[in-house]
Amino acid sequence: MFPVMIRNSRDWRNKITTDWKPLAFLGASGGVAVILQMTAIKLTLVSYVVSIKRLSIPLTVLLSYLYLDETDEFWYRIAGAVLMAAGALLIYF
Description:
mainly alpha
């Protein structure tokens, strides 16, 4: 996303210097998520790991609605997210 930010924002240097703590947290948590996913793939079947990872999508849609006020086409997004979660549950059972 860094190249997109540079292209679309004129004040990107100031935004990075003022908001470095949340950006560092997001980067670190994303890195830890990838490490944990690769470790889980070593321990179990790939289909289980991917289905568990897909379960984060409904949570993300719901949190973006509640905290970021993303109301555009919310019901379409939540329906798709629930469908993905149902598919993950079908893989589990």
